[in-house]
Amino acid sequence: MSYRYIALVNTGRSWSNGHAFALDAAASQAGLSRRLMSDSITLFASAHTPTLRVPDGGIIVGHLFSANSTDPITEAHLQGIAEHSCIRRYLTEHCWGEYLLVMPGPRQPSEVIAMRDPSGGVPCVYSIQDGCGFLTSDISLARQLHGYQSRVDWEFVAHFLAYPHMKTRRTGLTGVRELLPGTSLLLQTGTLEIVHEWSPWDFVATAQRCDNEAEAIADVRHAVESVVKAWSRLDTSILLELSGGLDSSIVAACLRDVPSRVECCTLVPPIPGADERRYASVVANDLNRDLHIEALPFERACFDAPVQPGAVTPRVTALQFAIDDVMHAAADRLGVTSYFSGGGGDTIFCSLGNASPAADAFRRRGLSCALTVVRELSELHQCTAWRAGRLAVKKLLAAPKPARRPDSMFTNPRLPTITREDHPWYSAPEDALAGDRERIFDLVNTQSFRDSAPRGTVRPMRLPLLSQPVVEACLRVPSWMWVAGGRNRSIARAAFADVLPSQILNRRSKGTFMSYSGTAYRRHIGKIREHLLDGQLASRNLLDMDDLRRFLDSEQPVTHSSLMRIFDLCMIENWLRHQCAPSHSA
């Protein structure tokens, strides 16, 4: 199961014996037990949530690995950390995993420090006022142990309509914030400060760049193999989710010799477009495993699906719910202990799809290198070298694109202009390359992947390509190397060329769920119309009702952007209805 914990903080006074006893009793009813108690922190966790005690009275929730080993770190290994002046820096520079560090401050026991690892594998939201509050993986635990009462933050909702799926500190619940991956919370004398401990920008700096293609290939191979094998050692059985594409196939190749039982699974919708069983079968056969083919009927696309009690923001669309529901049922039937996915691979392996690599090459390597990359881009995108070169020059001369543009489709045009909330990874250096900007901005979007897969609350969801060593190794490789030979994700292909089936290695196309989504939309149009025209968003005047009615009543084919927007609006509406239900209301 996923990580489940709550840390109650109180920097004003020590816990009384009576209060501590009452907390233990309430935690026991919630399936938790006390793992840490200090003057300012009491942390409870479920039996399946791993924890490690660290020197100076702290605790690590989750899994921790050494940068030089695939073996999990033990408490004995952590004793040497006391020699380092900053444990937070030590963890980000010498370790990786999915973890949350919680500890008293070094100067006063009443201080509190919490750090979330760069991958964000352990969820963490918090609410702290006047030195008291909680940090937790699941807001429903805060309702049980802290008495927190949920209230919708409508300003957040307006922002989320403009910037859907964007991860920020703010959540959809009043007074609740998220500790973003790679950041720390410092609570000192009632003052709360957020510190950025890890940044992807450090790994695209000139001093970190990998200039040798052979070295880049070796580094990426080592990072991915090591991470996949490290995670697999924690699981006795694995459901490998095969999409038929390169990324999940690379994860599969790294699972070939692991001792865990590996079950391969792929989804097949009732219409063409996303049927990947041909390619998934090749990968499963290469692993000498059977391929479990799971049907994805249109009925699974539920626009009023149950919302996880711990969901502090809208994250699961009807399509994501359908996929999640089918995969969860398959995992139950096959009796596996975890999921493995290649999610995030497009971003990690720098599949940009534009002329940025040529512009980057010109800025860092000069005209000769840029011309070579232009030719490779023309082959990759099946266009003339003149067109690829023209787009590269345009990219080179254009002002940097913003990290996100607002989406106003179907929203009330009379709403005030929404100021975009910030994310620390959006703060690009002035001399940042176009390709680096785009890949790091996309990396922010991957932080929502776990939130959109609630099956990960039942059994671990392993996303090895988003683990810190893989991200760092791939960021060090400049964008132009990823299109070498006119192939996208070229370094990843070369790194695993000896273990991938040729059909996968040389594949250029990829399936899409557009046809499935379009058919699901038409079949559920009645529910969608009721959901959006008579819901919370409409009652708050957040939607352009006339425009929305025209769209819903139209017989014209829907575009990809409008269809995805409708799915997002339904996702937001569904989350709001659950939050505004009597059991959630303050």
From TrEMBL:
<protein>
    <recommendedName>
        <fullName>asparagine synthase (glutamine-hydrolyzing)</fullName>
        <ecNumber>6.3.5.4</ecNumber>
    </recommendedName>
</protein>
<comment type="pathway">
    <text>Amino-acid biosynthesis; L-asparagine biosynthesis; L-asparagine from L-aspartate (L-Gln route): step 1/1.</text>
</comment>
<dbReference type="InterPro" id="IPR029055">
    <property type="entry name" value="Ntn_hydrolases_N"/>
</dbReference>
<feature type="domain" description="Asparagine synthetase">
    <location>
        <begin position="220"/>
        <end position="577"/>
    </location>
</feature>
<comment type="similarity">
    <text>Belongs to the asparagine synthetase family.</text>
</comment>
<dbReference type="GO" id="GO:0004066">
    <property type="term" value="F:asparagine synthase (glutamine-hydrolyzing) activity"/>
</dbReference>
<dbReference type="InterPro" id="IPR014729">
    <property type="entry name" value="Rossmann-like_a/b/a_fold"/>
</dbReference>
<dbReference type="InterPro" id="IPR006426">
    <property type="entry name" value="Asn_synth_AEB"/>
</dbReference>
<dbReference type="InterPro" id="IPR051786">
    <property type="entry name" value="ASN_synthetase/amidase"/>
</dbReference>
<dbReference type="Pfam" id="PF00733">
    <property type="entry name" value="Asn_synthase"/>
</dbReference>
<dbReference type="InterPro" id="IPR001962">
    <property type="entry name" value="Asn_synthase"/>
</dbReference>
<dbReference type="GO" id="GO:0006529">
    <property type="term" value="P:asparagine biosynthetic process"/>
</dbReference>
